[in-house]
Amino acid sequence: MTLSERNVFFKAGIVFCAILALLMLAVLFTLHQGTDYNLSFGKALEDDELRRPANIFQSITGYFFDNNFYAVHASIILLVLFSLIAIILIHYFFERTSAPEILYIAIFAISLSFEILRFVLPLHLIHYFPSFYMRVASRILLFARFFGIFSLFAASICAAGLDVQKVRHVIFAIIITSLIITLGVPIDVLNWDTSLNMINGFSSMFRLIEISAFISIMISFFIAAKIRDSKEYTYVAIGIMLALFGRNILLSADNWSAPFLGIILLSFGTWFLCSKLHKIHLWL
Length: 284
Hints:
Layout: H1 3-32, H2 35-45, H3 56-61, H4 69-94, H5 100-111, H6 120-127, H7 131-159, H8 167-183, E1 187-192, E2 198-200, H9 203-227, H10 232-251, H11 259-282
Antiparallel strand pairs: 1-2
């Protein structure tokens, strides 16, 4: 992929994320224009019998903080806005810098805007549309999450020596892999947890996939640092680690301890890794 083609992708990503951000504002207006939703859905979300996320951070903070549906909304809003701001800044700072890894970092950032689909659940309480749409939304969201994390893996193997001329093949492989995983997942549209995530089957397998991808990403960037004799790639790995920690906190946030810590880790980690990538490729 040429530099101009990559920049066109960045611009398309900006437009896409901006549209979703505007759609999010419309959804929020629809949800909060009346008190019935706030009372009924807030009570349902704070029900003690409703399952809370299995995320480690949420499991720990759950002992000290009650779940709050405004905190869930805040987390989704922060993810969508982060996605838009991140792709704008990536395009601005890397417009003239040929950094093969940044394309995959941008895809990861764009994938976070799909978290807006978690609002499908409360919208269902208002409009009572068929559960089919909830199932489709859940599968799209699951696809976006895997597509994002596999894109980071592609960035890591690209740094470790992947032929950058095969970008389209790599993206196609990521799409197929994410589709295979997503389409084979049983989804229970009648049950959800307090972070507005519908209950999916094989949750332990998904955690194993994410952990394996995370470890592979770290190892690949450490290999890149060794092969290219550049400690900056080690810093990139640290940035990705922080960004993924922040991402995972926000994906399952259900109390006020999570949104701000999550967005700080996600934002700082993304800025840190992008600044190091820019430094690596600035003089190449």
